[in-house]
């Protein structure tokens, strides 16, 4: 691979920081695997089944600055987390929510978008650029947006109107401020 539209590659060597004693020659994935070995060495079986304790599914952007469990006071086993670029309610998110509700007992849905989202700086032109580069237009929409509040409202609407979901009465949407850590609730109206 020489380049791609986003200018990113994967499995690049880890920049060695102050604590860089961890696999200084390794890839980022090597570092994660080493971290997992330490995690597992202190891990005890929590004895839970797969049904989320709080019966809630959280749909959020994949943004690296959003630590869902810390930001929402969630513990292991509490919730389902469904994440993608933008926290967009795509068909695949509806698939996960449907399984979450019908097979695993969740009842509430929380949608979290955030300030400074990468999707605000993209347009549907992104698909055209991909087509120009690789000769194939993706089947998916970029789902870029300009108004984050409106984007949350649209996401809430998609969940509320899905015919596949059992529970659409408790669907709330928020914008997470990456500078303050605070959630701001969006009025669905
Ligand atoms: Zn985002």
From TrEMBL:
Major enzyme class: lyase
UniProt-listed SUPFAM superfamilies: beta-carbonic anhydrase, cab
A molecular-function term among this protein's GO annotations: zinc ion binding
Composition bias type Polar residues, residue spans: 1-14
Entry binding sites for Zn(2+): 61, 63, 114, 117
Source organism phylogeny: Bacteria, Bacillati, Actinomycetota, Actinomycetes, Kitasatosporales
Membrane spanning residue stretches: none
Zinc found in the keyword field: yes
Cofactor remark: Binds 1 zinc ion per subunit.
EC numbers for this chain: 4.2.1.1
Region feature Disordered, mapped onto this chain: 1-25
Signal peptide: none
Record field: catalytic activity: hydrogencarbonate + H(+) = CO2 + H2O
UniProt keyword annotations, A-Z: Metal-binding, Zinc
Free-text function comment from the UniProt entry: Catalyzes the reversible hydration of carbon dioxide to form bicarbonate.
Cofactor: Zn(2+)
A Pfam family reported for this protein in Swiss-Prot or TrEMBL: Pro_CA
Family per similarity comment: Belongs to the beta-class carbonic anhydrase family.
Protein name: carbonic anhydrase
